[in-house]
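Allow me, if you will, to draw on your knowledge of protein folds for a short while. I have a record of one protein: its chain in single-letter code and its fold written as discrete structure tokens. Kindly check, if you would, that the fold set down in the tokens agrees with what the sequence suggests. Thank you for your consideration; the sequence and its tokens are set out here:
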Amino acid sequence: MSDSKIKVRVTPRSSRNEVIGFQDGLLSVRVTAPPVEGAANTAIIKLLANHLGVPKSRISLAAGAKGREKTFEIDGLTPDELAAKLSQ
């Protein structure tokens, strides 16, 4: 199986956890967690896992641990499968 990467722009401390959609080539997400000690990163992984229907263990942060723009790697999904799941 191949890996897919997705670029995400996060808004921490939001009123709810949600996937907004693509804006400027980045997947916009909101999480309630604050950007402290990796809490927002953990919340994003959980949100993406639920949204994509994959285990949390198959999603890892590849870049951007401390920034608003992050890159996540999804193990076991092809880029086409990822695109299909995100367009639902």
